[in-house]
Known about the structure:
- By secondary structure, the protein is an all-alpha fold.
- The chain has helices at residues 2-25, 29-52, 59-89, 94-100, 107-127, 135-146, 150-153, 169-196.
- The model has no long low-confidence stretch (mean pLDDT 90).
Amino acid sequence: xxxxxxxxxxxxxxxxxxxxxxxxxxxxxxxxxxxxxxxxxxxxxxxxxxxxxxxxxxxxxxxxxxxxxxxxxxxxxxxxxxxxxxxxxxxxxxxxxxxxxxxxxxxxxxxxxxxxxxxxxxxxxxxxxxxxxxxxxxxxxxxxxxxxxxxxxxxxxxxxxxxxxxxxxxxxxxxxxxxxxxxxxxxxxxxxxxxxxx
Length: 198
């Protein structure tokens, strides 16, 4: 059961990543938010599946990864569900819109980045638990560990660099996110193969 859970979770996460990449190219904010929720729905069981197969003596670090993945999914679901419901379906005054609307670089945008910082931490910690015997598992372990760097990138709002009138902000954001999709696609594929071989 753990094997199938891991395989299906990796495929679900992959579908979300590819959907997210496509929706950015087509400028579909609805698709962006829905695909991001799909990533989260796949990511948590994928991390839990890694934890189920973690090498001996790695339980504490596995539980840490699960805890960080749980914080990630909570923040991400809160942000994107609000975008698909309250922001999309209701008429908001300017102050409320500045807080809730992801595109305004306000509170919910910052919550979103904080969520992805926790995702990066989850991959970093779970990477240490991967028993890498095969070459592809060594690549997987390396990608998971290196993904932890994104945790530092995601706390950039602390420097106050994002704001609604930022010159070229939209294109910079799209480029960064497309590069992230390019990075995370092999993570999903290698995770699927890792679980399949268990």
